[in-house]
Amino acid sequence: MSLALTDQDKLTLRTAAWGAVSLMSAAGAAGSPHKVATHGSIALTSATGPVGHVLTKAPKGVKYGKSVADLADVVLPALTAAMSLLKQQAPAEADNFRNTVIVAIEASARTQNGEPSPTMTEMARKITTALDAA
Questions:
Q1: What is the rounded distance in angstroms from the CA atom of residue 46 to the CA atom of residue 106?
Q2: Which helix (H) or strand (E) holds 31?
Q3: Crossing angle of helices 118-132 and 68-89, rounded to 10°
Q4: Residues 6 or more apart from 132 whose CB is under 8 A from it?
Q5: Could you tell me what percent of the chain has a pLDDT over 70?
Q6: CA 45 and chain centroid, separation
Q7: Whose CB has fewer CB within 10 Å in the chain, the N or C terminal residue?
């Protein structure tokens, strides 16, 4: 299956998925943000199907801002937009994208010793809410 995605569509998907990992990394900063980002990135680059082909590259030229709030202002709407776009074009790929992002945030959260921090748990909830808003 192939998707008819424009360059802007691909940028939206990349911004959403890679931005979700960045949000988890920012939320886990008390632990090891590098490990959080590494585990989330591995999950994204392990994606399959048309979504996997899009997510093999991180977005270029995206301005995430200087704070976690700025980052969330870009990423959370991009997650919803990505889901809307994929639901219109290929519902199975919307499920693939959602599952890929969920695996990435779960992989990110598991890098902490024991349970994820409350901050990471709340960020994961916000990401999931944005995915499901479409």
A1: 14
A2: none
A3: 30
A4: 83
A5: 93
A6: 11
A7: N
Phi, psi of 15 (to 5 degrees): -60, -40
22, pLDDT greater than 60: yes
User: How far apart are the C-alpha atoms of 52 and 46, rounded to whole Å?
Assistant: 7
Domain edges within the chain: 7-58+66-132
Token pair in block for residue 63: 């301005």
| Tens digit of each residue's pLDDT (9 = 90 or more) over 89-108 | 999 999 999 999 999 999 88
CA 130 from chain centre, in angstroms, equals: 10
Q: Which of 63, 27, 52 is nearest to 103 (CA)?
A: 52
* 3-class DSSP state of 23: helix
